[in-house]
Amino acid sequence: MVNIAVLGYGTVGSGVVEVINTNHKSINKRAGAEINIKYVLDLRDFPGDPVQDILVHDYEIIANDPEVDIVVEVMGGIEPAYTFVKRALESGKSVCTSNKALVAKHGPELMEIAREKDINFLFEASCGGGIPIIRALNSSLTADEIDEITGILNGTTNYMLYKMSTEGSDFDAVLKEAQEKGYAEADPTADVEGYDACRKIAILSSLAYGKFLNYENIYTEGITKITPADMAYAADLGMSVKLLATSRKIGNDSFYAMVAPFLVGKESPLYSVNDVFNAVFVHGNVLGDAMFYGSGAGKLPTASAVVADIVDEAKHLHRNIMTNWTSRPLELMDLADVEGRFFVRVKEATVAQVEEIFGNVQIVNLKQFPGEFAFITSEMKQGEYEEKVKKLNGRVITMIRVKD
Amino acid sequence: MVNIAVLGYGTVGSGVVEVINTNHKSINKRAGAEINIKYVLDLRDFPGDPVQDILVHDYEIIANDPEVDIVVEVMGGIEPAYTFVKRALESGKSVCTSNKALVAKHGPELMEIAREKDINFLFEASCGGGIPIIRALNSSLTADEIDEITGILNGTTNYMLYKMSTEGSDFDAVLKEAQEKGYAEADPTADVEGYDACRKIAILSSLAYGKFLNYENIYTEGITKITPADMAYAADLGMSVKLLATSRKIGNDSFYAMVAPFLVGKESPLYSVNDVFNAVFVHGNVLGDAMFYGSGAGKLPTASAVVADIVDEAKHLHRNIMTNWTSRPLELMDLADVEGRFFVRVKEATVAQVEEIFGNVQIVNLKQFPGEFAFITSEMKQGEYEEKVKKLNGRVITMIRVKD
To answer: What is the mean pLDDT of residues B278-298?
Structure first.
C-alpha cells in the first residue's frame, strides 16, 4: 500500500480524490500497489463529504507520519506550499504538485532535494493541465535536442481570443462572458496579461534545455490590446490570433523566450487549437515537428495529470526519475536580436511611406476600416523593426508578431 | 557503458546510428550511461561507411556476446526478426523495435518473456513514427480509463488524400506522385488497403485497454475507392476525408475497432492533420480529449523514437517497465451493432425515395455532378443502415462513414 496526503481540497484536490476513487482498479494496477488517501489537509471542514473522515487541519500530522509516502500539493500559491513541500521532500516523502508558481520559482531547489534523497518531485499538472507534455520532455523526447517549444498554454485567453474571432465581440465583452462561465477569475490579470503562460513556458523551457529559465526574465505581453479590428485583419489573412508562449534555441547556445499575441497561419498545427484547449508544439533536431493537444485546465483533466504523477512516484518510491533540469541559469539573448515578421496597422500614412521605410511589405486593406491599412514586414531583427517604426511615429495603431 | 546491437542497416537502422552519433552528449546524459553501438548486423557490406568496422553478418556473434545489453531490431518483417528478438529476450537482453508486424503478431508473448526476465521489450516506433504515443499510454495516461483511440496512422495515405483534396487529382495520379517522392512503395497495398494502419491500431488498442487485440479481427477498408468527386462533396460540407484507424470502448466491456475512410468535421482536431503527418486522438474518462501529432514516418523521426526506447531501456536495464497489455484476447462486438452516421452518394434516385427509407437526412447537391446527390443519415446502427440501403439497390455510388 502506498499512502498519500492531499494538501488542499479545492477544485484540483477534490478532483484528485474523485479520480482516485473513480478509477481505483486501473490506477492500482498501473501503480503496482494500492494507492490509499490517508489524509486530506484543508483549513475548512466538509461535513457530509466522505473526505471528512480523513481531513486534518494541521500539516504537522502529515509531516510527522512516516507512513505517508507521497505528498500531493494542490493548494496553489507560494506559501505555505513551499514550506510544506520542502519539509516533505527533506523527510523523504515524494511530492507532486499542480502549482506552476511554486515550480517556476523554487523548482531547481526542490528537484535537487528530491535527487539527493532519491525520491521524486513531479509537476505534470503545472503546465498544460491534462496534456502529458512534461513526461514527454522528460522521458519520451530523450533522443532529441529540443530547439523550440511554442505553446498555447492558457485556456482562458485562448477561449477569449476564439470568441473574439468567431463572434466579433470586443475584449471587455468576452472577458465578462468568460468570467460568467467560470473560465476567467474575478481578477483576470494573471491570465490576460500573460503571467500564467510566462511561468509555464519557463518551466517547459527549463526541462527542454536543461537549464533554469527564470520566468522574471521573459518578455511578457498579454492580450488586452487585441481588438475586433485586429481579428478582422487576421481573418482576411487566413490567420488566427493566439497568445503564444515560446522559446527557441538559436545556434549552439543562444536562447530567447517571450509571451505575446501572434498571428498564426493555417500551416501551423497551432492555428486550429480553439476554445479552452491548450497545445504545445515542440521541434526536435531529429524528431522534427510534434504537437501535444488537450484540455489545459479544468478539475478532472488537471487531476488526471496529478494522479499520473502519483502513479509514477508509487512505481519509483525510492528511485529518482532523472530530469534534464539543472540549476545553471539559462541566459536569454536580447530580443532586439531576434528575427521575426511584424503585422502593423497604421493610420494617416501611405503605402509609399511604409515602403520607403520597410521596403517590400505585404499590404492589407479592409473596406470596413477606411483611413487605415495594415502591412506585414519581411523578416528582420526586432531591434531593426523598432528603429524603423519610429519613423511612423504616432501613426501605428497596433503591432502583432507573426509566427513562422 | 551500455552496449547495443542494431539489427538491420536500412533506413531506420542507419537513422538510429546517425541519431546516436549526432546527439550522443545529451543522449548519454539522459540515459545516465554511455550508449555504445557494439555491433550492426546486416547481410550487406558498407565499404567506406564507419559502420563497416562494427558490422557483422552473423547473428550468433551478437546472441553469444554477454556484453550486449540491448538489441535494436529494425529489420522489419516477421522472420528472422521474431527468432532473433525472442532469443535476445530469453538470454536477458532488452529489445526495442520499430516493427509493427512483429509487435501486432507476437507482442504478448515477447512482452511476457521480458516481464519474466525483468528486462524490457519496447516498441515506441512501431506506431506513429516519432509521435511518443506508446510511452504516453504506458506511463502518462495512467490515471485514466481510455475509451477511444482514433488515429491517422499512415502517412502515405494521408498525403494522398490531402493531395486529392487540394489538387483535385484522382487516386492513381496521386499514388504515382507519392511513389515518385518515395512516400509510397512500389507495392502500395499495405498502405492504401489500410493493412498498415490496422496493425498499428491493434497495438495501440491492446495497450490502452489492457487486452490483446488481434489485428486479423479488425474490419479494414482502404482508400482505393475514394474519388475527386467525394473530395468535392467533403469540401462543400466543410469536412475532410481521412483514413482513420479507430477503436472504442462502449459501456463497461464492449469494444469495436475498424480502419476506414471517414468524413471528419472542422470541430475535430484530426480535421487539420495534413500531408504526411500522423496524429493520435485519445479520449480518457477523466482527461477528456487529447491528441498527439507529429511525423508518422521518415528516417530520423522513427529513429528518434527507437533511440528514446534505447534510453529508457538503458535507464531500466534490469527492471521491467510495466505495461497494461495482457495476453487475454480483446473480443470485438459485431460492427452491425455500432452506431454512426453515413454519407451516401446516389444516382437515379429522388430525395423523396431516400427520405422514405432513411427519414430525415442532410441533402447535398453539387452542380458539377448532375444526375446524382448525396445525403448524410442520422445516427443509426450499421446493421440498420445496411438493411435500409438495400432498398436503394444499384443506385448507391459510394458510402463514407462520418466521424462524430
So the answer is: 94
Domain ranges within chain A, ordered by starting residue: 2-129+299-315, 135-295, 335-403
Residue B322 above 80 pLDDT?
A: no
> Of the candidates B19, B32, B294, which has its C-beta nearest A290's C-beta?
B294
Residues A135, B131: C-beta atoms closer than 8 Å:
no
In order of A196, A321, B16, B311, B322, the CA distances from A144 in angstroms are 27, 18, 12, 11, 24
| Amino acid A322: pLDDT | 72
The cell numbers describing A32, all together, are 503496482
Domain B2-129+299-315 falls under CATH 3.40.50.720: yes
The position carrying cell 468527386 is B229
- Is the full-model pTM beyond 0.90? yes
Mark yes or no for CB contact A303/B286 under 8 Å.
Answer: yes
Query: What is the set of active-site residues of B?
Result: 200
Q: How far apart are CA B21 and CA B40, in angstroms?
A: 14
CATH topology of domain B336-403: Alpha-Beta Plaits (3.30.70)
Cβ-based neighbours of B75, under 8 Å, separated by 6 or more: B7, B8, B10, B13, B81, B84, B99
Total residues found in chain B within this entry: 404
Tell me the CA distances in angstroms from A64 to A35, A75, A85, A91, one per residue in order. 19, 20, 13, 9
**A301/B287 CB distance under 8 A:** yes
Residues 116-175, chain A: which have Cβ within 8 Å of B? 124, 130-132, 135-136, 139-145
Greatest distance between any 2 Cα atoms in chain B: 75
> Tens of pLDDT along A322-345?
777 888 999 999 999 999 999 999
The fold of A335-403 is Alpha-Beta Plaits (3.30.70)
In this prediction, residue A129 carries a pLDDT of 87
Kindly report, residue by residue over A244-290, the tens digit of the pLDDT. Answer: 999 999 988 899 999 999 999 988 999 989 999 999 999 999 999 99
Beta bridge partners of B154: none
Chain A contacts of B136, Cβ < 8 Å?
A: 132, 135-136, 140
Of B64, B62, B4, the residue nearest B33 (C-alpha):
B4
- Cell, residue A312: 509514477
pLDDT band at A231 (very low <50, low <70, confident <90, very high): very high
- Give the whole-number percent of chain B exceeding pLDDT 70: 100
Q: Tell me, what's the pLDDT at A30?
A: 93
Instruction: Tell me if domain B2-129+299-315 and domain B336-403 are identical in fold.
Output: no
Confidence grade of residue B241 (pLDDT, cut at 50, 70, 90): very high
Q: What is the DSSP string of B82-134?
A: HHHHHHHHHTT-EEEE--HHHHHHHHHHHHHHHHHHT--EE-GGGSSTT--HH
Average pLDDT, chain A: 96
A39 pLDDT higher than 80: yes
* pLDDT computed for residue B169 by the predictor: 93
Domain B135-295 has CATH 3.30.360.10: yes
